[in-house]
Amino acid sequence: MARTDAIVLGAGIVGVSVALHLVKRGLAVALIDRGEPGHGTSYGNAGIIEANTLFPAAFPTSLKSLLRIALKLAPEANYHAHFLARVTPWLLAFRCNSAPERMVATMWAMRPLFGRALAEHEALMAEAGASRYLRRTGWLKLYRSDPGFAATRPERALAAELGLPVRAVDTWEECVRGADVVVEATRLVTPEPLLRTEWIAPGALVVPYGTVSAVALDLTDVMDKIVVDDWGQARAGPLGALRAHVDSGRLSEANLHAELGEIVCGARPGREHDSERILLWHRGLSLTDIALGRAMLARAAERGIGTRLPYR
Ligand SMILES: Cc1cc2nc3c(=O)[nH]c(=O)nc-3n(C[C@H](O)[C@H](O)[C@H](O)COP(=O)(O)OP(=O)(O)OC[C@H]3O[C@@H](n4cnc5c(N)ncnc54)[C@H](O)[C@@H]3O)c2cc1C
Predict the structure, then answer these.
(1) What is the mean pLDDT of residues 57-71?
(2) I need a labelling partner for 227 at 20 to 30 A (CA). Which of 123, 207, 285, 294 fits?
(3) At 227, which helix (H) or strand (E)?
(4) Measured from the CB, is residue 240 less than 6 Å from ligand 1?
């Protein structure tokens, strides 16, 4: 039987990294997972290498946030009532360690780890031939209100102290110019071309979303491909980001590249060149909700979970 020096349980990013480093140190390693490697949390995350993260997530302080979590209305946290008693000591320790001075101490303790995150990922990506997947576009954080942004002042001051490249910008242009993906999700009362066409870089995917348009009329002129979810819905009605483009004839069936479904099923090509500017305009298609609902129902039935609700 082959020699095994170490067993690593769980083949997510942590287990795989540990196993690879042990192998590099000359150990024979068995990496074991109950499912597919890399299909746990490491598969379904946002894909940001958090090298510039300073503070870890903190226990919520406001009553409003706590209530939202208690009522299961918060997307960032969930709990099982029968599990609460078991995790109470951990929750208390979490709360205690979320005090401002503890957070700063944790920040300093974690910094060497976070500081190496990018270099370690780069090394593994180079070995795996996956470096092309890394985009060095930074992390754009948007704040809804001035007080929300002002609350980040201590973190930004610390970032400056640590020499981390954090830049505060306050115009649309500084956010959008050169971005790979531009999602415009305004809620205007009257149409206003806030998103300027000249900011859209080659290769960008633009998704205008506002019900009342925030894009310029010449936006469609620079697009290599324009895709809609459903042309029948897009061409009619009084509203939508590209309403004026349709009404003025700039966007018509003649220059529409495809409906989304045609690309998904391979009837029409999606992106063919890195430099293509592509625009997706979606009006919302309940068809996709129906398909998703069916898939969710099948998954729930397979796992024997869910609650049957009376209808009518
Ligand atoms: C929604 C979301 C977004 C996130 N976004 C980011 C982000 O942008 N950037 C970032 O840095 N982090 C992000 N994170 C955090 C990050 O994804 C996790 O910290 C990281 O993936 C954890 O890796 P892991 O190897 O510990 O766990 P996992 O990737 O979950 O791997 C654990 C493995 O263990 C296996 N396993 C479990 N129990 C057993 C058992 N009994 N026997 C055998 N195998 C077992 C599982 O099958 C799984 O494959 C995000 C997390 C979430 C939930």
Answers:
(1) 90
(2) 294
(3) strand 225-228
(4) no
Mean pLDDT in the chain? 91
pLDDT tens per residue across span 226-242: 999 999 989 988 889 99
State whether the beta carbon of 238 lies less than 6 angstroms from ligand 1. Answer: no
- How many Å apart are CA 42 and CA 2, to the nearest integer? 29
Assess whether 22 and 72 both reside in one domain.
no
236 lines ligand 1 (CB under 6 A): no
Q: Domain count for the chain, please give it.
A: 3
Beta-carbon contacts of 253 under 8 Å, excluding residues fewer than 6 positions away, are 231, 235
Range of 33's domain? 1-47
pTM flag (> 0.70)? no
Ligand 1 pocket, residue 63 CB under 6 Å: no
- Between CA 164 and CA 159 the distance in angstroms is 5
Nearest CA to ligand 1 atom 3: 45
Q: Are 59 and 98 in contact (CB under 8 A)?
A: yes
144 and 268 co-located in one domain: no
In a domain, 173, yes or no: no
**Residues 6 or more apart whose Cβ sits within 8 Å of residue 110:** 56
pLDDT digits (tens, 9 = 90+) for 204-222: 999 998 889 999 999 999 9
